[in-house]
Amino acid sequence: MSALSCEGLTIGYGDGAPVIDGLDLGIAEGAVVALLGANGAGKTTLLRALAGLEPVRDGRILLGGRDLTDRSTEDRVRSGLALVPEGRSVVVELTVDENLRLGGLWRHKSKARKAAVAQMYELFPPLERRRGAAGHTLSGGERQMLALARALLARPEVLLLDEPSLGLAPKATAHLLGVLRETAARTGLTVLLAEQNVTGALSVAQRGVVLSLGSVVADRPAAALAADPALRHAYLGF
Ligand code: ATP
């Protein structure tokens, strides 16, 4: 059974043409799938709809076989879905440590909460060095790490990540994607990773799905996609 799937999913804004048009997609438990496509292909729209933040016109969204199409974002989160939106959302007024403790709030025992936050510092040593720093003083890379760490603290089963490498230096991107790969391999986390950084995304993912004009135009093992210059040229702009 897929951890996350959609069937005939159609999404659009207002009366406009569909941005996502009858999309079928299944993501196996524990898989890391790269969601690729040029600017405006509909990656963000799809992730937001999966998280319940955009209404769908037609089709179904299933999480672990359960139909969540009409459920609230809160219900989806409770069912194990997490979205890290584009733009490194952290609470800028709070320190790194406070942001992380907020992410672990749902753990009722303070010992468990502390242990979970400590684990995030192990995964992201730069965050530990900046634990007392306010969110607004962090670099782009640090903010993205914090947004990812906060999402991981909720122990999601399925993580939706929207362009985590946007605006990051290559070293910060490599570190972030490396942590993601290790975490997924160790914990069995299922990941759908929307990225403009095709090379980075395909180095982490086992499979790549390319969106164009609202439909899937390629769905292949990551290595095969990375080695297909014609496809890259046609749909990914390089
Ligand atoms: P990018 O990499 O630039 O974020 P994307 O693949 O994530 O691109 P989307 O942001 O999902 O693509 O946009 C898909 C299409 O939907 C675009 O044509 C965009 O203009 C349109 N769109 C996105 N958000 C809205 C909105 N709130 N209202 C109307 N149209 C929108």
UniProtKB/TrEMBL annotation:
Keyword flag Cytoplasm: no
InterPro entries: AAA+_ATPase, ABC_transporter-like_ATP-bd, ABC_transporter-like_CS, BCAA_Transport_ATP-bd_LivF, P-loop_NTPase
Pfam families: ABC_tran (PF00005)
Keywords: Amino-acid transport, ATP-binding, Nucleotide-binding, Transport
GO MF, one example: ATP binding
SUPFAM superfamilies assigned: P-loop containing nucleoside triphosphate hydrolases (SSF52540)
Residue intervals of the ABC transporter domain: 4-238
Keyword Nucleotide-binding tagged: yes
Stated family: Belongs to the ABC transporter superfamily.
Protein name per Swiss-Prot or TrEMBL: ATP-binding cassette domain-containing protein
Organism: Glycomyces tritici
Phylogenetic classification of the source organism: Bacteria, Bacillati, Actinomycetota, Actinomycetes, Glycomycetales
